[in-house]
Amino acid sequence: MSLNFAGAAVSALLFLTSLFSIVAAEDPYRFFEWNVTYGDIYPLGVRQKGILINGQFPGPDIHSVTNDNLIINVFNSLDEPFLISWNGIQQRRNSFEDGVYGTTCPIPPGRNFTYILQVKDQIGSFYYFPSLAFHKAAGGFGGIRILSRPRIPVPFPDPAGDYTVLIGDWYKSNHTSLKAHLDAGKKLPFPDGILINGRGPGGFSFNFEQGKTYRLRISNVGLQHSLNFRIQNHKLKLVEVEGTHTLQTTYSSLDVHVGQSYSVLVTADQPGQDYYIVASSRFTTPILTTTGTLHYTNSAGRVSGPPPGGPTIQVDWSLNQARSIRTNLTASGPRPNPQGSYHYGLINTTKTYVLENSAGQVNGKQRYGVNSVSFVPADTPLKLADYFKIGGVFRVGSISDRPTGGGLYLDTSVLGADYRTFVEFVFQNNEDIIQSWHLDGYSFFVVGLDGGQWTPASRKEYNLRDAVSRCTVQVYPKSWTAIYVALDNVGMWNLRTEFWARQYLGQQLYLRVYTPSTSIRDEYPIPKNALLCGRATGRRTRPL
């Protein structure tokens, strides 16, 4: 460990006790020390500059239990600013810790920052990733699992093993080259391949013991493409989606759209040999495919023949599967009461936001936007500007809550919303490619998906009983998706496409969920160790 890194670790420990007053004293703490470095990786057989965490690509898993406090000291040993965001972790009352540039100052090179997270009232499968520049194309991502507390019933027996499966499209080019390509106003080329847990074709394997059942936590951490996941001659029993226990439907393969996470149970019920694990791209020409190996411990032979085929460009197949994914109403979630005890379908919505994605040129360069606004970052994180009441950084209402029909223009788009309201978002996709949307700080009910233009009459099709609650949802080509959200989490929350080039070039915004209250029951104050930058430089957080 370097002297700088060791010194930062000691400094972090010196003030941690003063930070713990933020969270409930009775909940356990888990401590993590992460050193973020560059390193050579060869996932597709070509040397690349990867981003490693403690020397690992992908990064280490985070194992936790509902309500745990996670103290994650991140030392940035790169030569550029760095941030980690926590996809699906709701950061209750604490958007300061969200790890995107709209909420958190970047960690400068050679310095550290200690994230203080609580996985409050959450269970399930999620992941973390680097949120700045185009770092996500170099690694720096890993799995997050939140187990139920011991006395909370789980709707299936403990599996014999529990594995993280990170799948995603990948480029042979370094992230700096891809970023320069986008900065020049160009679209990204087609990816070079697909990775499974950081490995290319044939590079990854799981060991299963015959007759036993295993849990796979599958996340699509790629940059753009939806992927279909399947295992030769084995069924996938879906049990959890981004923190919601689902009806236990069995599938032969599963579409995992970019940014999404699923848990499936797989039983080793076939003859003892090796079987293909397959991930292939959806809705693309050509189709990208990669394989791994499911190895039975009593295997009598290696995989043979071609990998099993899967769906390719069929939208209806994927739409029907999406509609079949529903909440298990009788199962417990993070608390003992059944998930179905919250009757979202009986609550009147107070506002509807219709968000339409688009692509176009601004000043001769490729840009993407929402309701005609292509997002540009401000010189100061929006949450800090809001907290310190720094004027001129952003304007609430700088983006319309309905499509305007106009051409793309640049602005720092912030939508306003009131705390404790129950609202409807409609994602309208008039483009001929699939979209994937994520909302930080929340889980939402996916009440409807269909083709064509959304109208108020579309509500007749909504599932108001057992829609799945999740944080990332797809919108099919020339289609719409509708969600319901209870805005019970004060803060500044990133609403973005998970297509990373489109996010980088403007297809995102921030949702400011506001209350005039200054009570810590509604929102925590700024962390005492918060980094300050931009126009917030020189301001005070709170005395230690």
UniProtKB/TrEMBL annotation:
Gene3D superfamilies: Cupredoxins - blue copper proteins (2.60.40.420). Signal peptide: none annotated. This is L-ascorbate oxidase homolog. CDD domains: CuRO_1_AAO_like_1, CuRO_3_AAO_like_1. One of its GO terms (molecular function) is oxidoreductase activity. Keywords: Glycoprotein. The keyword Glycoprotein applies.
